[in-house]
Amino acid sequence: MMICGSVTADYIEVKKLTEKLANLLTISKKVKITTPKGINLSMAIEGRQGNTLAGFAANPGEFFSLSDGEVL
To answer: How far apart are the C-alpha atoms of 35 and 20, rounded to whole Å?
Structure first.
């Protein structure tokens, strides 16, 4: 894991993408998830704060784990 795979990602780019997605979750009111096999799920998310796990812990109290790139 330490020499190949997702741990070798460009974590600056991972951070940018996860922050963009977290912002979308923060400002959105609804989420709809569909799949080719017929899943059709809608839910309200208004008032929810999007959070990231992006491979960086630069301030006291922050945390991360390898390999990150999650939006919660």
So the answer is: 23
- Find out whether 18 and 70 touch, Cβ atoms under 8 Å: yes
Domain ranges of the chain: 5-71
For the question of whether the overall pTM of this predicted structure is more than 0.90, the answer is: no
Can you tell me the distance from the alpha carbon of 5 to that of 67, in angstroms, rounded to the nearest whole number? 9
Of the candidates 30, 2, 35, 21, the one whose C-alpha atom is nearest the C-alpha of residue 69 is 21
Which residues contact residue 49 at a Cβ distance below 8 angstroms, ignoring those fewer than 6 apart? 25, 26
- Quote the CA–CA distance of 6 and 70 in Å, as a whole number: 13
What's the Cα-to-Cα distance from 26 to each of 1, 9, 20, 32, 52, rounded to whole Å? 32, 25, 10, 15, 11
pLDDT tens digits along 41-58: 999 999 999 988 887 788
